[in-house]
Amino acid sequence: MSIMCDTLAITPKAGNGAYGPVYGKAYTANAYVEAGFKRVVNKDGQEVVASLFAICAPSFAGHVGDKVSFGGSTYEIVDAQPFKEGARVHHVEVYMASIAG
Question: What is the pTM of this model?
Fold first, then answer.
């Protein structure tokens, strides 16, 4: 898709260690990114406010809990949903909440 002119740096969450989350090796993904606030429901059923929205390719491999760096800020994926067009996935809509560090 030609609208995917932004680049996200994703650091996948590999699990939890004795001192908190453990993250894997970072990778990049092209996306169309919009800043703005939207209330979404996270994986625990709680309402959270996402401050960044991205449209990614159908092959996007990010998951809830992964860290995302964009524009000098760090975010956490709070929701990632495939958008289907018929039987095939057209794109993935990703909502992210701002986090410290």
Answer: 0.89
Please answer whether residues 53 and 85 qualify as being in contact, where contact means their C-beta atoms are separated by less than 8 angstroms: no
Strand 73-85 to 27-41 pairing = unpaired
Domain ranges of the chain: 6-99
**Is 34 exposed, middle or buried, given 0-12, 13-18 or 19+ CB atoms closer than 10 A?**
exposed
Contact criterion met (CB below 8 Å) for 68 and 10: yes
Residue 30 CB neighbour total at 10 angstroms = 17
Percent of the chain with pLDDT over 70: 97
Residues paired with 88 in a beta bridge:
85
Q: Write a three-state SS string for 10-60.
A: EECEEEEECCEEEECCCEEEEEEEEEEEEEEECCCCCEEEEEEEEEECCCC
6-99: which CATH topology? Thrombin, subunit H (2.40.10)
Model confidence at 2: pLDDT above 80: no
